[in-house]
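Record format v2
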Amino acid sequence: GENVEQHPSTLSVQEGDSAVIKCTYSDSASNYFPWYKQELGKGPQLIIDIRSNVGEKKDQRIAVTLNKTAKHFSLHITETQPEDSAVYFCAASSRGSTLGRLYFGRGTQLTVWP
Amino acid sequence: NAGVTQTPKFRVLKTGQSMTLLCAQDMNHEYMYWYRQDPGMGLRLIHYSVGEGTTAKGEVPDGYNVSRLKKQNFLLGLESAAPSQTSVYFCASSYGTSGYEQFFGPGTRLTVL
């Protein structure tokens, strides 16, 4: 099955700085890559996703890039704010699998210091 | 819309006891999932359902059973709880398979003593 690795496991940045989280995947058939944000005591919530026919997608301060050849994708958060502090999960999914199930990375704890 | 709700929010069990976690969604989604979240392990799929009356095993199904008698509900059962099942359990639902957003519930924190 798919194996998704995520780095770093923890990330601390000063307010206003940028944050980058990187993920790699193993299954070349994977074609959907969502990012979830989990705030303390809550369930994960989708913040952005990208499909394999696109190399980059942006939504205000958040962007995701995908390199299919290298099998890695990254989340970029610019002008970070304290409310960006949370655990971020990357995931990968393959249309070829029975369920199209999501394979999650182990998460990155982002802390934004004011 | 309430989205995805989970009952209970917290529970403490003794080893060997049984319990059922209830997940309900009001979005008319076909697909429902149960995950467990452990520190440093991300989210691991326990069981899932692709429609009413269907269930299937995920990545870590041992010690758990599920039922989907109604489209809006997905139940996760622990027949004989073990300390290794101490975790936070999340239910999710989605309209379709790959490429569709999964909506997560708020989670159930279970401690097995």
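The interface with chain A takes residues 4, 31, 33, 40-45, 48, 50, 56, 58, 90, 92, 96-102, 104-107 of chain B (CB under 8 Å).
The two ends of chain B are 36 Å apart (CA to CA).
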